[in-house]
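Hi R.,

As promised, here are both runs. First protein below:
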Amino acid sequence: MLRYLTAGESHGQGLIGIIDGYPGGVKISADDIDKELARRQVGYGRGGRMLIEKDGVEILSGVRWGKTLGSPICLQIRNKDWSNWEKAMSISSEYEGSVSPVTRPRPGHADLSGLIKYGHDDIRNILERASARETAIRVAIGAVCKLLLREFNIEIISHVTEIGGVGINKMVLKLGEIQKKAEASLLRCADKGAEKRMIKKIDSAKRNGDSLGGVFEIIVTNLPIGLGSHTQWDRKLNARLSFAIMSIQAIKGVEIGLGFEAARRLGSDVHDEIFYDKRNKKFYRKTNNAGGIEGGMTNGENIIIRAAMKPIPTLMKPLKSVDIVTKRPFLASVERSDVCAVPAAAVVGEAVVAFEIANAMIEKFGGDSLIEMKRNYNSYMKYVRGI
């Protein structure tokens, strides 16, 4: 079983991630991870934090001479803004009270619920960990998982399909074209016309001190049949993927394949008919309304997931709130933030999906080393081709 933990605060010394259960013998370097971190930091509508931080990872354990050992992998991303927060975020009681507490909770954030839950009197104790800054280390973890998946030719791509109600036109593009256009886009949008309209929408929101959400799509290719299981609720791959996507800050909805549209159609217009290619000895579908998953298991088609991200709750034109000390109404406190972070969220989505697919691969094919895992995989694929 693959698992991970993260630690760290937005303005603390840095972020830490520990991955356990990762097989030995996989080639890995900090450069591979840094490329993914850089993808998370770009995008039209990002805030001032991206001008301060240029994330780079340090691999502290679990790798020797460029290959994983099979022992826990520890990753660290240092916060470059730490020098300005050493007293405010110090672990020492010596600096307690050196900065004023944050007492005005922001609507839509974890501020008030977290403060009450953990018994604090300073909202900063909540907002520092609830911040989407935490996703940087999850992207690093996802990058490590992507390296394992590429050993099996499994790729994960993402693109933005909607921002602030402005959606892309229906496109008939090959996956390679979608990936290429998305990577070249300021908004990870493969539709140039839609991108221009989205940028205008973001500019308008920024002028008004507001924020925008949107929708992104993740596609996973070249998956074997049978990842996940139908036998228990917590082994269904669609459930795990939905859980992972919903764990990303500001995500409010997930759909796989047709998603909610499936509820509006007849069954005959939803389910993917099954065919058999005698030449290549494989089952296949001409449609993929299921989004690559049936009964909690991969069916050999691409996994297609869409996620809805709400507008970021930190606004330059803050909403009404109540001071937790005086109980008097105030405008919510303002923290440095983005106007729109949907493109970045898409990269984070890739990362958490990569972890879940890697976990399903390890669960299915086992092995403490990449060599053993590939041997099991190849044997299984030979069996599948012989059916």
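And here is the second one, sequence first, then its structure tokens:
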Amino acid sequence: MKRIIFTVTNDLNYDQRMHRIAGTLSSNGYQVLLVGRVRKDSKKLSAQSFKQQRLSCFWEKGPLFYIEYNIRLFFFLLWHKADCICAIDLDTILPCYFSSVLKRQIRVYDAHELFSEQFEIIRRPQIQKIWLWIEQFAVKRFRKGYTVNQFIANWLQERHDVQYDIIRNLPTEYPLQTIEKDNYILYQGAVNEGRCFDTLIPAMIEVNAKLVICGKGNYYEQTKALIKQYQLEDKIELRGYMKPDALRDITMKATIGLTLFDEKGLNQYQSLSNRFFDYMMAGIPQLCVDYPEYRDINNEFGFAHLIKTADSHTIARELNKLLADTVLYKGLQQNALKARSVLNWEHESLKLIRFYEELA
């Protein structure tokens, strides 16, 4: 088994997680093709060690986009050779399943999150019913797979009787440069519903630093409106999508990182987000929600400042504490510098390589 196709619904330029997975397998002798989407404002694809293909759709978002993309992806998979097809999350699982059945291919499911339990989905019951049906139909038919933490692995086993490996999305270790901090607080990642922007934006009124937001998503326009509503245009900067190398530089220059989620959906409460480790790898302390997966790791490594609630008052108070308390800040920073030699992709990727070797 040498040819693997991975499928996502996002723009490949900004998917660091899939860059790591596809790049690792490519460097270990696999022929990898990563398939995503192209948007009207997409930039030229960055060169990688693996092949990439972006599918063009008429619809940009909503149910019509998912229907169109899944149809296009199904026919794309039918016409491209592969020994194994890996669906990333529920939004590409159906075309991967039907194509793998017709072509008798190995199929793998990469459950990056509890897709049907996202806040933006559970608040729309009719939409959630559709995703739950897709989940019930498809996941049990993907006997091989992996996910990012133990809770999701247990949840999938209880609901769908599948036993998946755990491969965390840890960043690649890189040398830290001696650079001057720019005294800004950084949020990196999807600007989506359920990420505490309703409380973070007003909290910045009382915080003695600038906020930089790198990313876009389904709550981007609402976030812009909140910034305008609270007259914080001079204090909060929206930079949109950033390519991985540029984002790394911005992260290293930041003073504090943010890992915030509303406690309104199981997916958010049991999450283990990329940015949690990205801040750690850059050696910067972070303000993080005190949810189970983050708490377990922080109990061992101690590089994040956890908060029980993410209301505006708490966010402002604890950010100012991090900015003012040099003993607390330096302690978290030193712990991050120690943790980065353990929590990195160089170690975690061995699990990925072993998974595909055993699959073959």
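A quick note on the second one: The CA atoms of residues 172 and 345 lie 5 Å apart. Let me know what you think.

Best,
J.
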